[in-house]
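User:
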Amino acid sequence: MKTLSVAGSLVPRSSRQPDENAGDFAKRKARAYLALTKPRVVELLLVSTLPTMIFAERGFPAVWLMVATILGGAMAAGAASAFNCYIDRDMDKLMKRTKGRPLVTGDVTPREALIFSWVLAIASLVVFWFGTNPLATALGLAAILLYVVLYTMILKRRTSQNIVWGGIAGCMPVLIAWAAVTETVEWPAIILFLVIFLWTPPHYWPLSMKYADDYNAASVPMLGAIANARRVSVQVVLYAWATVVCSLLLLPMGYAGIVYTAIAGGAGVWFVYESHVLYREAQRDHSPAEMNRKAMKVFHISITYLSVVFLALAIDPFVGSPLFG
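Assistant: Predicted structure:
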């Protein structure tokens, strides 16, 4: 028996609607399982995977290795997201942003979601094991555990710093990618790990400003929901600066060439500038709606920034050599 959310409550509904044929039912079910994996989150995580592999190889790795790493990474991230949906289903029904998730609408049952999560997680590790190497497999397992246990089960409902330390899981794809190519973890991978670690707060806190009412309704202490815009904007500026400085460490350490340096530097100036604009606007007496609009601008810019930096990372090995070293 499934459930359907109606006016904030849960009422039973059958597995198939009376006027729904088998084909439509199968499509709806497939869409629901896909939604459990949070495809947009998976897509953002994978933005860093292939460029890191190319940078580690200083060229294109073997096709089978790229496919295995990307597929295993997508499955691991999807499994972690599905576990997250299962664990957070009680709060998801309280938030407007998440009221359409499959466990809230009843398109999948908690039992179905849990089984799906386990199957996808195990399958991802199998892909890593046979397609990459033991170190990449271990890092894939660590990524799942960090997101499900550290972030979802321990930090998310307890501290405003949840996304800072819980965001470590989102940094793991670069370590996995580097390990898949080199069978080790070296300084460039650690720097890229730190770039994503420092980028996560100024990416996510502006989003939590917009959805503050949702997070407060679900008693989730996201900094953007419990702090005023001035305090949040200060943190966004500090983390944005730290992200950009860290990204440029690849230059003096002898790993980055002119393409990466120019593009990462230019994109970094833009990211920091827009973060300062958010801080400046937070000092003024804007309406909540206007402040949310400005915060979301930084949120979207942060996505573009990270995508551009990793695109530059992928191009850099093919144009010249490192400027130092």
